[in-house]
């Protein structure tokens, strides 16, 4: 089996409402680039890439000469052909590599008529548990969807719990002043006794602010405190809080993982199939974490159904998946995979059992959302439309005003 072509299509899929985060916002939609790798046997493997537009499509097409004639089984050779660590100092292709790896694994699985998790050692769980992913949200044009106050936050979380069965809840913070978000976080814990909770300000707090916040939540049933401040050295200063510390920002490659093993800063590594350069890299990282008794969870970087499938196959094979996975997925109004959005049952999603990734494209949906992208274009992830002229600092000191309805 040899690769004969590669295609890229950028789509934008609406969200229920704009999602705010410490670095900016998702402006009411996700922009993703769908990657298709075609083999000489007529099979097509699917990948997905964050962001999009002409630059992402051009970057994918630019790999054509690297890929045509390559056997998709030879993934380790592909890793060095695309993302040699020295060459990547000049041209970092890690996320491109991830999208191509997804597609190659999909091709191999289809060719052998086995699911991707069988290529990774076989699944040890049929379903992957997920946490709710709670965001502060600006309102839609019709005034719906806002999540700003503690009351709105609790109402939204309870609705998600009722609909999807979540028993673990993660609050994405770093938007409003820490003391305001503290009230919201404590309100969530009070409203859902028996559940577990996570707070993630995306490294926006100073060490001192992060310490004050951590001291104020020590009595709650916290899964972990995620990226409370920026950098391994900053987080390391908070290890005496007595709350497990987690990251998806400062341990995202093997050099950083080795540093964290030698001089511990975080207890839980959030493995992202895109950030780490593919599913296989995450499996390798999880094995290191197993050896050194670090916790792992599956991270979400804003997925459609293709990348969600990679997250599910990853979660299926990890013996040390000790925490529920994250997903933005329930914020989407639609998907580009055949059959529509995957569903949660009791807070879990079933691992696809079909060959390859187990998902196929709904071509009509791809065309619809490719046209919507052409109409709306992209958006700057690191800007918040509710705060014109604002840009993030690290640590931040310019918070959104919680008294202003959006």
Provide the descriptors you would attach to this structure in a database record.
single chain; 406 residues; alpha/beta; Enolase-like, domain 1; TIM Barrel; 2 domains; 9-stranded mixed beta sheet; 3-stranded antiparallel beta sheet; DgoD-like; glucarate dehydratase
Could you explain the architecture of this structure?
- The protein has 406 residues and is an alpha/beta fold.
- It folds into 2 domains: 3-113 and 362-376, Enolase-like, domain 1 (2-Layer Sandwich); 119-350, Enolase-like C-terminal domain (TIM Barrel), CATH 3.20.20.
- 34% of the residues lie in helices and 18% in strands.
- It is built from 13 helices and 14 strands.
- The strands form 3 sheets. A 9-stranded mixed sheet has the order 3-2-7-8-9-10-11-12-13.
- β7 (132-137), α6 (150-164) and β8 (168-172) form a beta-alpha-beta unit.
- α3 (75-83) packs antiparallel against α4 (94-112), α6 packs across α7 and α7 runs parallel beside α8.
- The protein is globular, with a radius of gyration of 20 Å.
- It starts with a strand and ends in a 30-residue tail after the last helix.
- It catalyses: D-glucarate = 5-dehydro-4-deoxy-D-glucarate + H2O.
- It is an enzyme of class 4 (lyase).
- Residues 150-244 form the Mandelate racemase/muconate lactonizing enzyme C-terminal domain.
């Amino acid at each position: 089996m040899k690769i004969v072509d590669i295609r890229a299509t950028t789509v934008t899929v609406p969200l229920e409402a704009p999602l705010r985060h410490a670095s900016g916002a998702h402006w009411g939609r996700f922009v993703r680039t769908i990657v298709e790798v075609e083999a000489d046997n007529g099979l097509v493997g699917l990948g997905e890439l964050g962001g999009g537009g002409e630059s992402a499509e051009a970057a994918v097409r630019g790999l054509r000469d690297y890929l045509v004639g390559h056997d998709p089984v030879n993934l380790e050779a592909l890793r060095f052909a695309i993302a040699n660590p020295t060459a990547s100092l000049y041209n970092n292709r890690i996320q491109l590599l991830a999208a191509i790896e997804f597609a190659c694994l999909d091709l191999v699985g289809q060719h052998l008529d086995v699911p991707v998790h069988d290529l990774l050692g076989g699944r040890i769980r049929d379903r992957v548990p997920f946490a709710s992913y709670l965001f502060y949200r600006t309102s839609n044009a019709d005034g719906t969807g806002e999540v700003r106050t503690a009351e709105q936050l609790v109402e939204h979380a309870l609705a998600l719990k009722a609909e999807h069965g979540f028993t673990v809840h993660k609050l994405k913070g770093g938007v409003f002043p820490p003391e305001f978000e503290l009230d919201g976080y404590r309100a969530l814990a009070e409203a859902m006794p028996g559940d577990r909770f996570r707070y993630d300000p995306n490294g926006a707090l100073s060490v001192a602010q992060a310490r004050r916040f951590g001291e104020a939540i020590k009595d709650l049933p916290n899964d972990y405190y995620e990226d409370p401040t920026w950098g391994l050295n900053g987080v390391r200063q908070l290890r005496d809080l007595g709350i497990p510390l987690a990251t998806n920002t400062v341990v995202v490659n093997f050099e950083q993982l080795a540093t964290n093993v030698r001089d511990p800063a975080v207890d839980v590594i959030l493995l992202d199939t895109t950030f780490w350069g593919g599913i296989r890299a995450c499996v390798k990282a999880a094995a290191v974490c197993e050896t050194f008794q670090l916790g792992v969870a599956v991270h979400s970087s804003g997925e459609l159904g293709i990348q969600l499938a990679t997250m599910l196959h990853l979660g299926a094979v990890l013996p040390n998946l000790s925490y529920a996975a994250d997903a933005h997925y329930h914020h989407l109004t639609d998907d580009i995979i055949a059959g529509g959005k995957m569903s949660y049952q009791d807070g879990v999603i079933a691992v696809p059992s079909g060959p390859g990734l187990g998902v196929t494209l709904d071509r009509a949906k791809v065309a619809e959302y490719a046209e919507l992208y052409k109409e709306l274009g992209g958006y700057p992830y690191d800007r918040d439309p509710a705060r014109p002229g604002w840009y993030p600092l690290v640590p931040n000191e310019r918070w959104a005003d919680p008294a202003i309805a959006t």
